[in-house]
Design brief:
homodimer, alpha/beta, 5-stranded parallel β-sheet, two-stranded antiparallel ribbon, globular
Amino acid sequence: MTQRPKLYLAGPDVFLPNAAEIGRRKKELCESFGFEGLYPLDNEAMRSFADESPDAFIYRANVAMIRDADAGIVNLTPFRGVSADAGTAFELGLLTGLNRPVFAYSNDADSLLDRTKRNGMAAFDAATSSWRDPHGLLIEDFGNADNLMLTEALAAQGGVLMRIDAQGRLDELAGFTACLEEARKYFSV
Amino acid sequence: MTQRPKLYLAGPDVFLPNAAEIGRRKKELCESFGFEGLYPLDNEAMRSFADESPDAFIYRANVAMIRDADAGIVNLTPFRGVSADAGTAFELGLLTGLNRPVFAYSNDADSLLDRTKRNGMAAFDAATSSWRDPHGLLIEDFGNADNLMLTEALAAQGGVLMRIDAQGRLDELAGFTACLEEARKYFSV
């Protein structure tokens, strides 16, 4: 029997009160699709064995899992603002640098601009024909779900970005499941 | 004469109303330290020549610059919230995946937790002995400037994170200059 492809499961899910349960459910879903899921929280139990600071240890363990993974599924749902979690964006970049295919979902279906408008933080500046936030900072207007570096990375890595209308809930797994469908096609498992 | 090392200049500076001027100043500072600065905005002028969508073109051009760079200087100043710009975090991840040294600065000297407290978004949860935001989401309490994946990446890549007390202004360049000092030591230029 061949080894199942490994998927690194990135996202701010690890900050949820029920992070461990979400991790278990995600890994079970991976199993049911023929994959092995690598969930960041798995490492936390080993912290006390490590002869280094907890943050350095978690970083090292997560990076080791990312390097060990054949692909990633990334939760880009907005986190404490209009964009994805910074740690998750970092991991998407790392996966891209390592040339791994990535499949992503966001549980907020709006574009970055529409979301910023919805939060009352966008105004049209006629002088520059562009949308700006209250600090005058440009808001990208490409219809993308987030900053173009994130959304175009997915296109370049052969992946998808599922935009799910789920009020931005971090624990909704329909988009995650849709990513597993895409990963199954990609790996023909 | 040997070629000057190239530095990719990541950050949300590109969204400032005076982005082009900041880019020019940053590149001049690079020159004065013996480096060549690669600033993302440089590509925008070429957009109209490209037979692809502007966002896909900008992504491709920025990634090409990052791959061409010998190191990165990254502006991690909080952007529209308590954390770094998602696109910048992505680029830090990409630089890390490509094993480039990275030097970073933030123009907000506070830790992620203190910044979140300052914004009135942090409460201590006695049941779990942890700080939580209004949605019950964990706030990292390591004293780091941002999500541990970003801050530990810098340590792992041999770089620094300069925390500058500049009220979060995106265009303050003292931290950038301090990063150039570090890069000069690293490359012995």
